[in-house]
Structures are given as structure tokens and as C-alpha cells.
């Protein structure tokens, strides 16, 4: 995350954790969100609060043997623009997890903005 922070803030994104927000706060945030970058997880269901307005989604997915498609399908049902980026296996000081190439991440963000024009 440290490697990606500069790129995220340079593009004007705010880092939030929907788990720390109550439902009213989530609704307010997601009704105002036009660009969403999210690690795969239940917080992506908040896209429903943007219904009827444009939303551009970049989902970051842990490297798996299959690509979970439920948020991709949900985005399609709502008419949102959607793309994904697969992370790479990686371990940080024995903590597990995955990493995303800063180069690939930058390209994905640029694509997110280019597709919205």
C-alpha cells in the first residue's frame, strides 16, 4: 500500500474503510462517488447507492485460480464502467497477502479516467 499511496493521493482519491462507517455514512459517500478503486470485498456492494448516476470502478483482486465475477456482474447490471486488476502473490515480512505492481496500478488508474471521457 505504501508504494501506491502517492499515486492514489496524486489523483485526488481518498482512502476510506467502509467497515468503520455506519450505513448512513456509507450511503452519503457512495452517492457522491464517481470513481471507485477497491480491493475485492463486501464494501463493493455499496455501489448500489450510486444507481442512476455514472460510476467508474477499478476492482483489485487477490491472485486466484478463478476471477470472482459477482461485483463485475453487479456493475454491469447497474450500467457502471468496470475494470479489474489482478494482484501478484507476495509476502511482506511473513504477513502474507498480495501486491500490486505500481506500474500496472498506474496504468489501470489512467484507464479508469480515460474510459470515463
Q: What is the approximate shape? A: globular
Distance between the termini: 28 Å
Tally of individual helices: 4
> What does the main sheet amount to?
3 strands, parallel
Bin the strand percentage: 15-25%
Structure, described:
36% of the residues lie in helices and 18% in strands. The protein has helices spanning 2-10, 23-31, 70-78, 102-116, and strands at residues 35-39, 56-61, 81-86, 88-89, 98-99. The chain has a three-stranded parallel β-sheet with strand order 1-2-3, sandwiched between helices. Strand 2 (56-61), helix 3 and strand 3 form a beta-alpha-beta unit.
Write the layout of secondary structure elements.
Elements: H1 2-10, H2 23-31, E1 35-39, E2 56-61, H3 70-78, E3 81-86, E4 88-89, E5 98-99, H4 102-116
Parallel strand pairs: 1-2, 2-3
Antiparallel strand pairs: 4-5
Concise overview:
Helices cover 36% and strands 18% of the residues.
Keywords for this entry:
single chain; 117 residues; alpha/beta; three-stranded parallel beta sheet; two-stranded antiparallel ribbon; 4 helices
